[in-house]
Every structure is written in structure tokens, then in C-alpha cells.
Amino acid sequence: RQLRLAAPKNLILTAAVTTEPFFGPDGTPTRDVSGFAKVLDHIAIMNYDIWGPFTATVGPNAPLDDSCVPPAPRGGSAVAAVKAWTAAGFPANQIVLGVPSYGHSETVSPDAAYSDAQKKELASYPAFDALTHQPGDKWDDAPGTDPCGAPQVYGGIWNFWGLIEGGFLNQAGNPASGIAY
Fold first, then answer.
1. In this structure, what DSSP letter does residue 43 have?
2. 159 in helix, strand or coil?
3. Which residues contact 115 (CB under 8 A, 6 or more apart)?
């Protein structure tokens, strides 16, 4: 509020937020964020990195809707995020949805990748080998040492255009010929 009062009238004040309303002192999402809507022009829900190398299983990077998924693997989605923020009092017309144009690559063993013995149906949310770090596209960071001296592994990031360049998608963004998934 102090920033809004001290700022020029034409300042656009926003916040990038998670898929759940701000967490309170007890670690749970706040039930009423309507006061923030009076101060912020809009929020941008960061509906990405829901799943990645930091989770126990693979899943969609930015799910649109996870309401059909059993509760255990749910990690958040665009639909759930907008519902949560509006239920907590943030007006829908002040919500912007952030979506990625990249994904994460992980190594999943053939045994974990399928849900049937015939290996015809892909498993939902299979575990991956967290010790194997695959490179992503040509824009991915290479292994090395970060500025603080900590070792870095491949990020495994594939941008949308990298998927086309890598032969996974065709120019229209559809699976390339020979890609079964």
C-alpha cells in the first residue's frame, strides 16, 4: 500500500505469483487476497514448472486442467490456479496467465514408461532417473560451474523451436513423422 501511495499515478504495479494464493504465516494459502487487488493492477500466475527435475515423477510442465487427475499427483494447473485466486477474492479481470514455451527432458526407464505388460500404453506420472541429466536443445545450459562455484548439470530444457529443430515436432507444431507420442 505504501508503494502504491508513493508511486506516480500511471505506475502499473503487478506481482508474479504461484498457482496458489499467497501463503500465510502458517504455510497455507491465504483465504482472502481481495486487499491485494486494490493495490495491484494485476497478478501474473506462473503456471509453469509444475513438474520438472525437482519433482519425483514426470508430468506436464504447465497443465491447463488437472481436475481429471487423481488427487495424489496433482501439482496445479491453470484452471485450478484461477479458481483458487478468484475464490480468495482476486478479480478474474486482474489475472494474467503465464504459460511457457519450453519443457523439461527426463530419462524414464522402459519399465516405468508403460502401464501395461504389452508396452503399448504410456504410464501417467512415471518416476524418472534423477541422476541422469539429459541435454536439452542448443539453448540449454551446458554442465559447468556456476558463479558461486557449485557444479551445474545439463538443464534439460527444450524450447518450442528447439523441438522443431530437433525433429520432434514439424513446422506446424504437430508430432513429427515417426514420433508415436
1. E
2. strand
3. 121, 122, 123, 124
pLDDT in tens, 30-85: 999 999 999 999 999 999 999 888 888 998 899 999 888 888 778 889 999 999 99
CA torsion through residues 96, 49, 140, 175, sign: negative
Cα gap 32→24, rounded to integer Å: 10
Give the integer Cα–Cα distance in Å for 44 and 134.
30
Block residue for cell numbers 522402459: 110
| Cell numbers linked to 61 | 510442465
- Cell numbers at 88, concatenated: 480468495
The pTM assigned to this predicted structure is 0.83
pLDDT band at 181 (very low <50, low <70, confident <90, very high): low
DSSP type of residue 93: G
